[in-house]
Amino acid sequence: MWFRRDLRVDDHPALAAAAERGDVVALWVADPALLGAPHHRSPVRLRFLRACLEALDAELTALGIPLIVRHGAPALVLPAVAAEAGADRVHITGDVTPYATRRDEAVSTALGRDGVALTCIGGPWRVRPDALVGSSGNGYLVFTPFFRVWDAIPVDARIATPAALAGPRFPSDGLGMLPPGEPPLPAGPTAARARLEEFIRSGDVDRYGEMRDDMASDATSHLSADLRMGVLSPAQVGRAIGAGDGVHPSRQAFWLQLAWRDFYAHHMERHPVVARAAMNEKFRGIQWDDAPEAMDAWREGRTGFPLADAGMRQMAETGWMHNRARMVCASVLVKDLLLDWRRGEAVFMQGLVDGDPANNNGGWQWTAGTGTDAAPYFRVFNPFLQAKRFDPTGAYVRRWVPELANVPDRYIHAPWTMPEEVQVKARCRIGTDYPEPIVDHATRRVEAIERYKSAAERMGVA
Ligand SMILES: Cc1cc2nc3c(=O)[nH]c(=O)nc-3n(C[C@H](O)[C@H](O)[C@H](O)COP(=O)(O)OP(=O)(O)OC[C@H]3O[C@@H](n4cnc5c(N)ncnc54)[C@H](O)[C@@H]3O)c2cc1C
Q1: Does ligand 1 come within 6 angstroms of the Cβ of 364?
Q2: Strands 26-30 and 67-71
Q3: How far is the CA of 283 from the centre of ligand 1 (A)?
Q4: Sign of torsion over alpha carbons 327, 332, 336, 342
Q5: What are the backbone angles phi and psi of residue 67, rounded to the nearest 5°?
Q6: Is 221 in the pocket of ligand 1 (CB under 6 A)?
C-alpha cells in the first residue's frame, strides 16, 4: 500500500483491498521532485504532513505493521520495495495533478516490467473526478449542474479499518527530510475526527449558512488541511453530518463546499492546462505588471487595504486564512495590483497548511475571472465594501493588523481617511504606522477591466 493523500487507516478502500489479499507493506515515499517543487516548499504544510505521517505510523503499528518511508523517485522506489516484499500488486488512491498523473504512469510502467500491477481505488475526493461525464461526455464546466448530479450520489458506506495487518519488516529512511516542530493545528486522524465532532457538537455546522462569511467569528470547520492530507475522508464528513437525507439547509451549505473540492479536481483532471495557464483561453495573454515592490507589500500584508493585509498576516502567522479573506487578497493582487494570479497562487501554496493544487488553483482562477465558472472579469470586488459587509465591526482586521487596533469603527476599513487628530488618538499615523493604499482602487479597477478586454480582443473573442 503506497500512501499519498490518504494518510489514515479507517474508511480507506485501497488499504482494505490490500489487506484482504494478505500481507501488506505500508509505504510513504519522500519524492524529491515534489518536496523540491516551488509549490511544495511550505514549512507549515510540511510540518503538518510530518505530524500526519507520525500519526499514520502509530495507527498502522497498532494494527501490526509500521509505516516504511523511502526517499527517492517513486518510479525507482516502488519496483525496489515491491521486489524486496515479493509483492505482485501495489495499491494506491488516485490524484489529479499533472505531475501526479505522469508519476503514476511512470510507476505503473516500471512496476509492469516486473509483472507487478498498480491498482488505484478511490481518492481524496468524494466522487471520482472522471465519474461525472455530463451530457456532452466531457464533464462539467459550470458548478451548479455538477453539484446537482454530485449531490444525488449517495454517500459511500464506511469501509471498516482492517482488524489487523501483517507483513514483512524493512528498514525505513525515516522522516528526517521533513521539518520537525509543532504543526499549526493538531494533526492526524484522531485530531481530525475530534475537529469534525466539535464542529457538529458546537452547532457551528447548523449555523454554517449564516456564519461562514462572518470573518471575525471564524466559525467554519477548519477541516481543509485534514481533507488535503486525507487523514479524513469526505465520506466520513458526509456521514457525520447526515448529508443527502433532507439535511438542514446549513449542513447542506457546508456539504456544497465539499462539492467545490471535487469540482476543482474534476477540472484539473480533465483540463491539466489549468495548472499553468488560464482555464479560459481568452485570458491567457493578459499583460501583467512586474512591480516587485507591490508584490512584496502584498505578500507581507502592507498594501494599505486593511482586509487584504489582515488575510495575508493571518496566513503568515497561522498557515490558514478565512475563505472570504482569500478571495479579497486574490482580488487585490490581480485586479488592483495587476499582478499575475499565478504569482499569488504560488505564495498561497507556500503559506497554507491546506495548500492543495486543485483547490488553490480553482480559487485563484475563480477570483481572477479566468476560470470557466468564474465571476465575470468586469465584476471587480471592492475590497472596502467587502470589508464593511463581512467584517462590519473590524474585529478581524484589528486582530491581524494590530497597528489598526485603536482605529474607530467608522475608519477601520479606510484608515487613510482618518482626520489628523483621530490618527493621533488612535496611535496610528497613516504613512508611518500604516500605509495609505498603494494603488487607487477606482483607477486600477478600470485599468484591470481594460487589460482583460484587450487580452480577449487579441484572441479575437471579445
Ligand atoms: C484564492 C483561493 C485559494 C484557495 N486555496 C485553497 C487551498 O489551497 N486549499 C483548500 O483546501 N482550499 C482552498 N481554498 C478554498 C477555501 O478558502 C478553503 O477550503 C477554506 O477556507 C478552508 O477552511 P475550512 O476548512 O474552515 O472550510 P469550510 O468552509 O468549513 O468548508 C469545508 C471544506 O470544503 C472545502 N471547501 C470550502 N470552500 C471551498 C472552495 N471555495 N473551493 C474548494 N473547496 C472548498 C474545503 O475542503 C473545506 O475544508 C481557496 C479559496 C480561494 C478563494
Answers
A1: yes
A2: parallel
A3: 24
A4: negative
A5: -85, 125
A6: yes
Task: Return all residues near 157 (Cβ < 8 A) that are at least 6 apart.
Answer: none
**Per-residue pLDDT reduced to its tens digit, 312-370:** 999 999 999 999 999 999 999 999 999 999 999 999 999 999 999 999 999 999 999 99
Domain boundaries, the chain: 2-123, 125-158+189-270, 282-457
> Which of 213, 354, 361, 373 to mutate for ligand 1's pocket (most ligand atoms within 8 Å of CB)?
354
439: its cell numbers: 494603488
The minimum-distance atom of ligand 1 relative to the CA of 258 is 34
Q: Which CATH superfamily does the domain covering 2-123 fall into? A: HUPs (3.40.50.620)
The protein residue with its alpha carbon nearest to ligand 1, atom 24, reads: 222
Report the distance separating Cα 331 and Cα 66, nearest Å: 45
pLDDT tens by residue, 142-181: 999 999 999 999 999 999 999 999 999 899 999 999 999 9
Q: What are phi and psi of 300, to 5 degrees?
A: -95, 0
In a mutational test of the pocket of ligand 1, which residue from 318, 333, 359 has the highest number of ligand atoms less than 8 Å from its CB?
Answer: 359
Residue bearing the CA closest to ligand 1, atom 49: 224
**What dotted CATH number matches 282-457?**
1.10.579.10
What CATH number does the domain located at 125-158+189-270 have? 1.25.40.80
Q: Is the CB of 227 under 6 A from ligand 1?
A: yes
Mutate to test the pocket of ligand 1, among 200, 204, 215, 323 (most ligand atoms within 8 A of CB): 323
Here the cell at position 88 is 505482485
Closest ligand 1 atom to 362 CA:
42
Ligand 1 site-directed mutation target among 257, 258, 266, most atoms within 8 Å of CB: 257
263 CB within 6 A, ligand 1: no
Q: Which of 310, 291, 290 is CA-nearest to residue 300?
A: 310
Which residue ranges in the chain fall short of pLDDT 50? none
Cα-to-centroid distance, 305 and ligand 1 (Å): 22
